[in-house]
Amino acid sequence: MQTVLFHSTIFGPIKSRRLGHSLGINLMPNDGKLCSFDCLYCEAGFNAQGTGTSGVPTRNAVKQQLKRRLEELAAAGEPLDSLTFSGNGEPTLHPDFKDIVSDVVRLRNRYYPQAKVTVLSNATMAAKPNVRKALKMVDNNVLKLDSAVAATMLALNRPVSHNVIPEGLLIDLEAYRGECIIQTMFVRGTHEGRVIDNTTDAEVDALINAYLRLQPRLVQVYSIDRPTPETALEHVGADELRRIARRIEAEGIAVQVNA
User: Fold this and answer.
1) CA quadruple 249, 206, 199, 5: dihedral positive or negative?
2) Residue 1's pLDDT is what?
3) Of the chain's two ends, which shows fewer C-beta atoms within 10 Å, N or C?
4) Is residue 105 a contact partner of residue 137, using CB atoms and an 8 Å limit?
5) Does the structure show a pLDDT above 70 at 211?
6) For residue 203, what pLDDT is reported?
């Protein structure tokens, strides 16, 4: 079984297709995965690997480790474009998420004021008051929406709570209308004999309707480029992603293709 990628709270910087030189902040366990989704394509593996034994890092540990790393990078003159909440699961599940975001913003302002603070989230906690306050503080509030069709979202993202459906997520995301970035992973393949494909005309139409409803400042479309726990998934090529992007752009929505 594919297992977690990140074995530290602060990692990188890594060169990201979407974010440039990105310093990662992993608020989840260093030896396990904790997520409200169990996506077929997750590079950190399936939730079945367990949450490990280390637990989530404390607010103070995150602050001190980040401060130390930023001092090292600044002293070395290293470039930094983004401080990015990502890692072994869903960062907004951390009980001190809002306070940690506040700490990160202050440290960014001190050491790398030109860098962006980015949160990569699956949006399942977006309606929580403290999460909403935190996401309003960051520069790049990147929220996942892989499908606006319930059956596809359930099959591809596999939410831990079966109460999570696209309509519920869209209602929650309306609080970020005009501000957020929506990130959509396009993929096709099979899982346990079932076809998974969010690139069809019907799927793209449903996504466009959702984008129009949310009016994000940007939609990022991309596909898998690393090993996935479900090995029967296929990369969607750059030409096809650009064709999908043109359909979205025709509706007046800004799109970034990460091929």
Assistant:
1) positive
2) 60
3) N
4) yes
5) yes
6) 98
Q: How confident is the model at residue 16 (pLDDT cuts 50, 70, 90)?
A: confident
DSSP symbol at 7: -
- In three-state secondary structure terms, 29 is coil
**What domains can you pick out in the chain, each with its CATH number?**
10-258 (3.20.20.70)
Report the amino acid identity of residue 212: L
CA 184 – CA 112 distance, rounded (Å): 29
What letter represents residue 82's amino acid?
Answer: S
Residue-wise pLDDT tens digits, 66-90: 999 999 999 999 999 999 999 999 9
**Which tokens belong to 211?**
């984008």
Going by C-alpha positions, the residue among 129, 180, 161 that lies closest to residue 35 is 161
**Rounded distance between C-alpha atoms, residue 82 and residue 116, angstroms:** 5
Q: Is the dihedral of CA 176, 39, 44, 254 positive or negative?
A: negative
Tokens of 247: 């359909």
Sign of the CA dihedral 57, 59, 64, 70? positive
> Cα–Cα distance between 48 and 144 in angstroms, integer?
21
Longest dimension (CA), the chain: 53
Strand bridging mode 194-197 / 181-185: unpaired
pLDDT in tens, 217-232: 999 999 998 889 999 9
Average pLDDT of the residues of the chain: 95
Give the number of residues written for the chain.
259
